[in-house]
């Protein structure tokens, strides 16, 4: 089965990051990871990649909404402004069940789905199937 080359996790919860990486490894989901603990750290690291050749840009981003410094919405606002040759699929993975957040996510073309934590191996397999 084909797998994602680079997966990016943007989340400030070390337990979620650890668990998600473990599930991704068990599901043979991706070749490598990028992990950022808030939106600002992610945008500061992804912008130069996007402005260059995009070779090491992630294929999939799992984005939390509630983070310090720069939250997921602020990250999305900045991310969509940066031109990119490579298509990046974003999955919002959050504990927020707020209907306003779910509706707001639909306004972003790059957001493929809105997933409620915790994420399961089955859900990762569905994401992988959609990416192939």
UniProtKB/TrEMBL annotation:
TM region(s), chain numbering: none
Residue span, Response regulatory domain: 6-132
GO biological processes: phosphorelay signal transduction system
4-aspartylphosphate modification, residue list: 64
Superkingdom, natural source: Bacteria
Keyword flag Phosphoprotein: yes
Keywords: Phosphoprotein
UniProt xrefs under PANTHER family: RESPONSE REGULATOR RCP1 (PTHR44520:SF2), RESPONSE REGULATOR RCP1-RELATED (PTHR44520)
Name of the protein this chain belongs to: Response regulator
């Amino acid at each position: 089965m084909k797998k994602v080359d680079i997966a990016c996790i943007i989340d400030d919860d070390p337990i979620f990051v650890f668990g998600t990486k473990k599930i991704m490894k068990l599901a043979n989901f991706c070749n490598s990871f990028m992990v950022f603990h808030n939106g600002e750290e992610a945008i500061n690291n992804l912008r130069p990649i996007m402005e260059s050749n995009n070779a090491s840009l992630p294929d999939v981003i799992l984005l939390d909404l509630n983070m310090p410094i720069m939250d997921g919405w602020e990250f999305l606002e900045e991310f969509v402004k940066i031109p990119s040759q490579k298509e990046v699929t974003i999955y919002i993975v959050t504990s927020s069940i707020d209907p306003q957040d779910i509706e707001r996510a639909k306004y972003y073309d790059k957001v493929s789905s809105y997933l409620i934590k915790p994420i399961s191996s089955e859900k990762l397999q569905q994401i992988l199937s959609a990416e192939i």
